[in-house]
Write a structure and sequence with these properties.
- The chain is mostly helical and about 425 residues long.
- It folds into two domains: about 15-195, Up-down Bundle (Growth Hormone, Chain: A), CATH 1.20.1250.20; about 230-410, MFS general substrate transporter like domains (Growth Hormone, Chain: A).
- The chain contains 14 helices and no strands.
- α4 (about 85-105) packs antiparallel against α5 (about 110-140) and α6 packs across α12 (about 325-350).
- The longest helix has about 45 residues, at about 370-410.
- The two termini are about 30 Å apart.
């Protein structure tokens, strides 16, 4: 009876694959919310209010307070969505606040006011994204998490495209650009909120395997070669792996242009931007292909380990590069591999969360692997670049990426054999 009612109710809801598509669109809406603002609109506004020199210090303070707010907000609102068991309500409230604060930011005319507004906006953004992450863990079955990660890989590119569109010369004023961003965010997030989502996947208890019978005098049964890691050990390894790769990615995002100029003084910011664009253009469809492969073969962790290892090789190539061509090839290898890693890791993390009733809180803690590197990266760069230069920095980052691959080695053994 219960099964029949579940089947009848499921028939009135959207299929899982359609939900995954709408969810990926909503995730892209999150990227559109922060990419144009943090990379273009906010720095330009700070420079306008403080001047180019003082603006650097003010922007650093805004980024610091914003990162702290994002870290705390992800944990707080993920936990609240666990307690209330109402992911959609928190996502909707966060969407309203994010769009409203984007519009209000266009009216802020003081630097101290910008700090307050950005902190409030970061809290609102994580009110939307924290429960949104947990919602995917609730509703997307493991057999579709590779597809989910591949589709999520398109979010950074769409965020960058939105930034390019809203900043077209003569299209809109500063406040008008923020209005456009708010509208784009709403258009992307609303469809998944308005759709009737699929039922959560059933998780039947595993069948108990009876102990093997042995005859008198026979040798004792051998234990399995690979013992699955405990849930806590898996979570820690996955967190540390993402943290290590995220530090490398954040460092390259901040210092790529300066490194290229140190190799060849004639490098333009447009060349650096085109290199970033190439990485986004290649990595998104590649992540989709690799994610679908991991679903079909039931190997969620193996691609992560491989991507971390390739990222380390790209960083080694960058450390050894002596000309611009070799440098760009090394970065392209690192950038593509790390982008695929980060997008697939975000989706596969959802399958190893230890408690279904605490997914929001756990994902908020996992989000620290995304926010804390922004605080660690400047310290690492300031400690290494003056002493050993950029090659030394890239060698250290290669060690971090290699360590991520080693951390995931034990988890690869827990992948089930290909079907």
């Amino acid at each position: 009876m219960l099964r029949a009612r579940r089947v009848a109710e499921a028939g009135t809801r959207i299929p899982v694959d359609r939900f995954v598509l709408l969810y990926a669109l909503a995730w892209a809406g999150g990227a559109i919310a922060y990419t144009p603002l943090l990379t273009i609109l906010l720095p330009a506004r700070v420079a306008e209010l403080a001047g180019p020199q003082a603006g650097v210090d003010w922007l650093a303070w805004i980024a610091l307070f914003g990162a702290i707010a994002a870290s705390l907000g992800g944990i707080a609102f993920g936990t609240l969505s666990d307690i209330t068991r109402n992911r959609r309500g928190w996502i909707a409230a966060g969407l309203v606040l994010v769009c409203g604060l984007l519009v209000m930011l266009g009216q802020v005319s003081s630097l101290s006011g910008l700090i307050v507004a950005i902190v409030a906006w970061q809290l609102a953004l994580n009110m939307m994204l924290g429960p949104l992450s947990a919602w995917a863990a609730d509703l997307v079955p493991d057999r579709r998490k590779g597809l989910l990660g591949g589709l999520m890989a398109f979010a950074p590119g769409l965020g960058a495209l939105a930034g390019a569109v809203v900043t077209l010369p003569g299209l809109a004023s500063h406040s008008g650009r923020l209005w456009m961003v708010a509208v784009l965010v709403a258009v992307c997030v609303l469809p998944v909120l308005l759709a009737r989502p699929p039922l959560p996947p059933a998780h039947p208890l595993p069948a108990q395997t009876p102990p093997a019978q042995t005859s008198p005098g026979s040798p004792p049964a051998q234990p399995p070669r690979h013992q699955p890691l405990s849930g806590r050990a898996m979570v820690i390894r996955m967190w540390l792996a993402r943290f290590a790769v995220q530090i490398a990615e954040a460092s390259l995002f901040a210092y790529l242009f300066f490194w290229l100029v140190s190799l060849e003084s004639g490098v333009s910011d447009n060349q650096s931007a085109r290199l970033f664009s190439l990485v986004l253009l290649v990595s998104a469809p590649l992540a989709l292909v690799v994610g679908r492969w991991s679903d079909r073969n039931d190997r969620p962790i193996a691609p992560l380990r491989a991507c971390a290892a390739v990222s380390a090789l790209g960083l080694v190539g960058m450390a050894l590069a002596t000309d611009l061509t070799a440098a760009m090839l090394g970065y392209a290898l690192f950038g593509i591999a790390s982008a695929v890693f980060l997008s697939l890791h975000a989706a596969q993390t959802l399958r190893i969360l230890p408690r279904p009733d605490r997914r929001g809180r756990h994902l908020g803690l996992f989000n620290l692997a995304n926010t804390v590197p922004s605080l660690v990266m400047p310290l690492l760069a300031m400690a290494l670049i003056p002493v050993v230069g950029y090659p030394g920095l890239f060698a250290a980052l290669a060690l971090l990426a290699g360590a991520a691959s080693l951390l995931l080695m034990a988890l690869v053994a827990t992948d089930r054999a290909p079907a």
